[in-house]
C-alpha cells in the first residue's frame, strides 16, 4: 500500500474504499469484503446514513483498528460549533470508535468556521487524528 503523509505526520493510504450510495443494510458486508482484499482506508459520511455499517465491519474484520484509516464527514445541517461537536460525537458512536483518522466538512456551507473550531477541539481532545477543512488534504 502506498501512503501520503498529512501535515500532522499521519500516514494516509492512497487507495481507499468509499461507501457513498451503499445502503445501510449492505454496507457492513461491502466493507468486510473490501478489508478482506486489502483495503485499509474506508470513507463514509454522516449524510450517507451508513456509518453504523462501517463501524460494525471494523469491529468484525479482525484487522486492528490502528491499521485502518477511517474518514467521515460533517454534513451541512450539522454546521456550527455546537451542532458539529454533537455530530462528531454521534459519528464516533455510530462508527464504534473513539477516534477517526480524517474528519472533513462535507460542503462549505452553514457556519463552517464554527464547524472547523469544533473539529479542532475534537482533534485536541484526541477524538480525531486529523482535522482538515473542505475536503482539502495538506500533504508535506
Q: What is the helix content?
A: 25-40%
Percent of sequence in beta strands: 15-25%
Biggest sheet details: 4 strands, parallel
| CATH domain topology | TIM Barrel
Number of strands: 6
CATH C-level name: Alpha Beta
Number of helices: 4
The count of domains is: 1
Shape: globular
Structure commentary:
- This protein has 140 residues and is α/β, with parallel strands linked by helices.
- It is built from four helices and six strands.
- The strands form two sheets. Strands 3-4-5-6 form a four-stranded parallel β-sheet, with helices on one face. It has a two-stranded antiparallel ribbon with strand order 1-2.
- A hairpin with a 5-residue loop joins strand 1 and strand 2.
- Helix 2 packs parallel to helix 3 and helix 3 (81-95) packs across helix 4.
- It is globular, with a radius of gyration of 14 Å.
Keywords summarizing the entry:
140 residues; alpha/beta; TIM Barrel; four-stranded parallel sheet; 36% helix; 15% strand; globular
Short description:
With 140 residues, this protein is of the alpha/beta class. It has helices spanning 24-36, 51-60, 81-95, 112-124; strands spanning 3-5, 11-13, 17-18, 41-43, 69-74, 102-105.
Strands, helices and their partners?
Layout: E1 3-5, E2 11-13, E3 17-18, H1 24-36, E4 41-43, H2 51-60, E5 69-74, H3 81-95, E6 102-105, H4 112-124
Helix pairs in contact: 1-2, 2-3, 3-4
Amino acid at each position: 500500500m502506498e501512503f501520503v503523509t498529512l501535515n500532522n505526520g499521519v500516514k494516509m493510504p492512497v487507495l481507499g474504499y468509499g461507501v457513498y450510495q451503499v445502503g445501510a443494510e449492505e454496507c457492513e458486508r461491502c466493507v468486510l469484503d473490501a478489508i478482506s482484499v486489502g483495503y485499509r482506508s474506508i470513507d463514509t459520511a454522516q449524510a450517507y446514513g451508513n456509518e453504523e455499517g462501517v463501524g460494525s465491519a471494523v469491529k468484525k474484520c479482525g484487522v486492528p483498528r490502528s491499521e485502518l484509516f477511517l474518514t467521515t464527514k460533517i454534513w451541512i445541517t450539522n454546521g456550527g460549533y455546537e451542532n458539529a461537536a454533537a455530530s462528531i460525537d454521534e459519528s464516533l458512536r455510530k462508527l464504534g470508535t473513539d477516534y477517526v483518522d480524517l474528519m472533513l466538512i462535507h460542503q462549505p456551507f452553514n457556519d463552517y468556521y464554527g464547524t472547523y473550531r469544533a473539529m479542532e477541539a475534537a482533534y485536541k481532545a484526541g477524538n480525531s487524528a486529523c482535522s482538515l477543512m473542505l475536503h482539502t488534504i495538506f500533504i508535506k
